C-alpha cells in the first residue's frame, strides 16, 4: 500500500521486535519514506482521536486475550475519523470448527513440548500421520484432508502462530459485530 500510495502515511505496530525489524528492513530496501513502524503492544496504544482513515488488524483478534480484544476495538473507535473503516480479521464460526478440531489435536499432541521447533515438527508429524490414515474422497473425510493439507503447507512460523498459539478463539459473526458495536449508535 505504501508503494502504491506515496502521498499517504502508514503506521505499523507490533509487540514483536523481530517483526518490526523485518518490516524496517523492507522499508529500507524499498526506500519508503511514508511508513513508520514501532514496537508497541495494543494495550499501550493511545492514538490521537480521529487521526486515521483506516485501521487494519489482520491476524490479531482471534489470537489475543479478551482484554486485548477489547482494547483493539477501543483503539479502532478512538483512532478512526467519522468516515473511517476498521478491517479486523478473525477466525469465524461455524466454518472454523473443522480447523478448530485439528488445532485441538495438535495442541494436545504437543502440550508437553517446550521447544517451538519440536512443537512444529511434532505437529507436522501428526498431520502427516492423519493424512496417511485418512479414508474417503467425499464428505467429512475430504474436508478434513483439505484442512490438514492446508496446515502442512504453511510455514513453520505460521503453523506455530496460528495453530499452536496459546489463544486461538474463533467467533461467530454476530458475536464479533456485537463486540465491535459502538454504544449509542445503531
- Overall shape: it is globular
Q: Main sheet, how many strands, which sense, barrel?
A: 2 strands, parallel
What's the total helix number? Answer: 7
Range of helix content: 40-55%
Count of DSSP strands: 6
Q: What average pLDDT do the residues reach?
A: 91
Strand content: 15-25%
The low-confidence runs, each spanning 5 or more residues with pLDDT under 50, are: none
SS class: alpha/beta
Cα-atom radius of gyration: 19 Å
Biggest sheet: strand arrangement = 1-2
Distance between the termini: 32 Å
User: What is the N-to-C succession of helices and strands?
Assistant: EHEEHEEHHHHEH
Give the total of domains: 3
Give structural notes.
The protein has 3 domains: 1-40, no CATH class; 48-91 and 170-186, no CATH class; 97-163. Helix content is 48%, strand content 16%. It has 7 helices and 6 strands; from the N terminus they run βαββαββααααβα. The strands form 3 sheets. A two-stranded parallel sheet has the order 1-2. It has a two-stranded parallel ribbon with strand order 3-4. It has a two-stranded parallel ribbon with strand order 5-6. α3 (97-110) packs across α4 (116-133) and α4 (116-133) packs antiparallel against α5 (139-152). The two termini are 32 Å apart.
